UniProtKB/TrEMBL annotation:
The lineage of its organism: Bacteria, Bacillati, Actinomycetota, Actinomycetes, Kitasatosporales. It comes from Streptomyces capitiformicae. The keyword ATP-binding does not apply. The keyword Phosphoprotein applies. It comes from the Bacteria. Keywords: Phosphoprotein. This is FHA domain-containing protein. Residues 38-90 form the FHA domain.
């Protein structure tokens, strides 16, 4: 069913399941009516109800669709380029449609070069009027995860490349970290095995408190490497500003450290 004239642009109905969509060139709202399809892309109507990447020839004229059925809005990629969802999930034209959850979902349409075009989606829940302006409200502080002094020093050493905001950072190996820690804290008894055990304890504790990325092994989905879980930990701590560049000062006098390689 094509998008009808009953679609209320710029209005936020109260009905649960109402879809709100927004790009830099426009916005719309659509009621949760079975069979209703909302399309987005570079083209004009009727190819696309919502314009996105309108000046980018790598974006298809009809790049994606959202269809309401079975109580959900189902997202499908109909364009030649990939669509990226949160957590790095990708959609190709051959990917099965994905149901949106209530609340906010950003998606990015791959464009030319490094360009990515944002489509903001919001599905209203019960008693939800949709996204509202909160320009005068207090800013919500980042979720800072608790770390003791030894944990912070250990994580700064392991994640120093993340704190330098390198383009594709990787953690130091446990043996490299132990070598630096032994030089900095010679009486603390740091060894590669101790580093591993302390990191595992941090991962286990933070995993129980709602850390956004996977920190523990899930045997039902195969066993990810410890290096991948450590990457998730360091990336999450830096992105939440639990670890920040001034923490690198904990590694003072690093010019006197032995060369641990790259």
């Amino acid at each position: 069913m094509p998008l009808s004239t009953s679609l209320a642009r710029g209005v936020a109905p109260a009905a649960p399941g109402t879809l709100h969509a927004r790009t830099v060139t426009g916005d719309l709202s659509a009621p949760p009516r079975t069979g209703l399809t909302v399309s987005f892309g570079r083209g004009k109507k009727p190819e696309a109800d919502l314009g996105v990447g309108v000046d980018d020839l790598s974006v298809s004229r009809r790049h994606g669709e959202l269809t309401y059925r079975q109580g959900h809005w189902w997202l499908r990629n109909t364009g030649q380029q990939l669509v990226r969802l949160p957590r790095g999930r990708m959609m190709h034209t051959t990917t099965e449609p994905i149901p949106l959850t209530t609340g906010y979902t950003p998606l990015f349409v791959k464009g030319s070069g490094y360009r990515e075009h944002l489509v903001e989606l919001y599905v209203a829940d019960h008693d939800d009027q949709g996204p509202v302006s909160r320009r005068d409200a207090e800013t919500v502080r980042p979720n800072i995860w608790p770390l003791d002094d030894d944990e912070r020093l250990l994580l700064v050493v392991l994640g120093q490349r993340y704190l330098l905001y390198e383009e594709d950072p990787r953690p130091l190996t446990y043996s490299m970290a132990a070598k630096q820690l032994k030089f900095l804290r010679p009486d603390a008894g740091w060894t590669p095995r101790k580093v591993e055990h302390r990191i595992e304890a941090v991962r286990r504790r933070l995993d129980r408190t709602g850390f956004k990325d996977r920190l523990m092994h899930d045997m039902s989905e195969g066993r990810p490497s410890d290096n991948r879980l450590l990457h998730n930990l360091l990336k999450g701590l830096v992105e939440s500003t639990t670890l920040v560049p001034p923490d690198l000062d904990l590694m003072e006098d690093d010019s006197a450290w032995p060369d641990c390689g790259s």
